[in-house]
Amino acid sequence: MIKQHNKFIKIFFRLFDHLPLKRKKQFWVLVLGMFFLAGIETITAGTIAFFASFLSNPEKVMHSKYIIFILSFLKFQFLTRTNSMMVLISIAVVGMVALRNLVQGLVVYLSGLYGTYSAGHIVEKLLTGVLYIPYEWHLSKKSADLIISLNWRQQLATFLIAALKVLGDFLIIGVLLLSVIIIKPVISIIAI
User: Fold this and answer.
1) With 94 labelled, which of 35, 86, 141, 144 sits at a CA distance of 20 to 30 A?
2) Do residues 156 and 1 touch, judged by C-beta distance below 8 A?
3) Quick one: pLDDT at residue 3?
4) pLDDT of res. 5
5) CA 184 vs CA 24, 32, 42: distances in Å
């Protein structure tokens, strides 16, 4: 199984080496967007968890030392009531989920665009190379071979988009685990 993952990574980086500098820079910008999405996912999960704990026992949450510290720092009197806090937390949850969905949609769209453009560039190089091969080579090949190479563009785009999706999912999992380890190191170490 590990050998298959290594092949997947090798293929991705072999394709990556054939891309122009502009596409390589776009890849790293896309990776930064994926890290941003991972951070938004983590904050959204924390907001939802806080909302669930507030729903289960609002009085205990209102008397938590963290909430008392935040309320004393903000000095908003209306947040001292349970109903006001519930409305604020509900708005925060809805806002974070909306932001997460917006950023996720943008990352998915840009990943698809990147995969399609990168595949187009690679297949263009491939077909340009085929066109400049001596004519005798063309006589020995079937026309279906050329059609198959044209179909590689779609397969290559699908591969690149899938690779970007896997990378994004790994980044999200990594940031979630890292945030849990940073926030509660003792519990994280025991759980591992």
Assistant:
1) 35
2) no
3) 64
4) 61
5) 37, 26, 14
H or E stretch at 31: helix 21-56
Residues 6+ apart with CB under 8 A from 12: 160, 163
Three-class DSSP category at 132: coil
pLDDT band with cut points at 50, 70 and 90 for residue 2:
low
- At residue 90, what is the residue type? S
Give the tens place of pLDDT for each residue, 63-107.
877 777 777 777 777 667 778 888 888 999 999 999 999 999 999
**Hey, is 38 helix, strand or coil?**
helix
Q: How far apart are the first and last CA of the chain?
A: 22
> Angle between the 82-131 and 21-56 helix axes, to the nearest 10 degrees?
160
Residue with tokens 């122009």: 20
For the chain, helix (H) and strand (E) counts, in that order, are 8, 0
For 135-156, how does the pLDDT look when each residue is reduced to its tens digit (9 = 90+)? Answer: 777 777 777 777 777 777 778 8
Q: How far lies 91's CA from each of 13, 87, 99, in Å?
A: 43, 6, 12
